[in-house]
Every structure is written in structure tokens, then in C-alpha cells.
Design a protein that fits this description.
Blueprint lengths: L18 E9 L5 E9 L7 E6 L7 H12 L2 E6 L3 H4 L11 H4 L4 H15 L9 E7 L1 H8 L9 E5 L23 E6 L7 H13 L4 E6 L15 H17 L4
Parallel strand pairs: 3-4, 3-5, 5-6, 6-7, 7-8
Antiparallel strand pairs: 1-2, 2-4
Length: 256
């Protein structure tokens, strides 16, 4: 299962930070208007890092807005996007939203177009003018984050939490497309996630290695799917490690 609506990022807010966020409406290549949430810090320097956040199957809700703010607090401008502008418009993604019919109507091309619109927003002249842009996603978003490495966005890296790189609804898979990846990959997985066996993770890593794509696959033993949640306190150590690895990955792939 993916995050519940009451889920919270397992990252303590930085008191006194200058991070702030706002709801956005972005426009995709086909003219679709879709919801997004942008977060930045007034203390952020020009030319640093930025990131596009790809949610789970529920789309854009509280967890991802908060996560965007946590990125902004550590100096990474962020924009979290929704997937369902074409089929659900700009309606709320609350507990009344039946997301799966909309998930089944998503297409890899339209998701990539929406990510492109988010990347363009991060590169806007009045923004932070990032020198490196990344994606990070969760579950459905994790798989789609991996796939953005093939989409000519000019990314510096892609990060996926428990995104299956193997067989699934969308094809071809990240593993099958490993030879088309244009940037490094960080994968974060739960060892107790029955939906993504170790063999699938290993197969992804091997395919990336054979393609000469820098990658790191981190598997947390006994951690389940969607462990990265404040309410999953028993996995606080794994979550803290994952957050540190993300920050290190971004730093290592952002020009100084």
C-alpha cells in the first residue's frame, strides 16, 4: 500500500527557516492545467539544486507539499506535481478522491510532459536558476521518477522510493530502458516490500551497470513499502538514513 492521507514526511522542520511554499497551476505541453506546489527559501543561493517531486497514486496531497518544504529548508528549490489534471481537473486529492480510475488513465508521455512543465517552472528567470535538477518519486512516482532519466529533461539525477523497475502497468520498464538513462540513479527500497523482490532490484542495477549508468540501490532490511513516514516510527533510523543519502546524492551531482 502507499501512504495514508495522514502520512507526514519523517523529517523535522527546521525552526526559523525562511522556506515558504505556494499552490501553483502549471500548463503541460497539450494545454492541460494541473496542480502543483512550489517551495523555496529566501536564503537559497542562485545556481544550486532543485527537484521535482512525483507523488504516489493519490496524487498531490499534504505529504508532498510538506516534503517540498523540507527540501527548500535544506536549500533545494522544489515543486511537487499532481498527475490527474486531464481527468480530474484541479479538484482536491482528499479522502473523497477515488484515485485509481484516474491512475489507470495516466500515460507515460503525459506524465513526462507534466514533469517537463515542472522543470521549466524551476528554470524560470525569476527563480533560483538551478545548475542541477533532480526528480524524486514514491511508489508509482518512484517508477516514474526513474523513467524521467530517459526523457531529455536535462536532469542531474533521478531518485526513487520503492518504485518498481520491473514488470508493471507501464511498459517498457525502467530496467528495459536502462540503456537510455542519461543521468545517475539512486534507488531506495524496503527489504520487506513483497511487491519489489531483491531479484528485481538486482536486475535493475545490473542493467544500469551494463549501460554504464552510475547507480546506487539501497535496500533497508525488514522495512516495508512506504516506510518513509513519520507515523512509521519503528523505521525512523532507515528514514533518516534515506534522507541523508538523498541530500548527499544531490550535493554530489550539483556543480559547486
Amino acid at each position: 500500500m502507499c501512504f495514508e492521507l495522514e502520512a507526514e514526511p519523517p523529517i523535522e522542520p527546521i525552526l526559523g527557516s525562511l522556506a515558504q511554499g505556494k499552490d501553483l497551476v502549471l500548463i503541460s505541453r497539450d494545454g492541460t492545467r494541473f496542480a502543483a506546489y512550489g517551495a523555496h527559501s529566501d536564503a537559497q543561493e542562485k545556481g544550486g539544486a532543485a527537484i521535482v517531486v512525483l507523488p504516489d497514486v493519490r496524487g498531490l496531497y499534504h505529504f508532498y507539499k510538506e516534503l517540498a518544504l523540507r527540501f527548500a529548508e535544506v536549500g533545494v528549490e522544489a515543486v511537487a506535481i499532481d498527475y490527474f489534471g486531464r481527468t480530474a481537473g484541479l479538484t482536491a486529492r482528499d479522502d473523497q478522491f477515488e484515485y485509481m480510475p484516474h491512475v489507470m488513465q495516466t500515460q507515460a508521455e503525459s506524465i513526462a510532459d507534466d514533469v517537463a512543465a515542472a522543470v521549466a517552472w524551476l528554470r524560470r528567470p525569476e527563480g533560483s536558476q538551478p545548475s542541477a535538477i533532480f526528480t524524486v518519486g514514491f511508489c508509482f512516482g518512484g517508477r516514474n521518477s526513474f523513467l524521467q532519466a530517459t526523457r531529455k529533461h536535462g536532469l542531474a539525477g533521478v531518485i526513487g522510493f520503492y518504485g518498481s523497475p520491473g514488470a508493471g502497468r507501464s511498459a517498457p520498464t525502467p530496467t528495459e530502458l536502462a540503456g537510455e538513462f542519461e543521468c545517475p540513479v539512486l534507488g531506495l527500497f524496503g527489504g520487506a516490500d513483497e511487491g519489489i523482490p531483491q531479484s528485481t532490484i538486482d536486475g535493475f542495477a545490473i542493467a544500469l551497470d551494463q549501460a554504464g549508468v552510475e547507480n546506487e540501490m539501497i535496500v533497508y532490511p525488514n522495512a516495508p513499502h512506504s516506510f518513509f513516514d513519520r507515523h512509521q516510527a519503528q523505521y525512523a533510523e532507515q528514514s533518516a538514513d534515506a534522507w541523508q543519502r538523498i541530500q548527499a546524492f544531490i550535493k554530489d551531482h550539483t556543480p559547486s
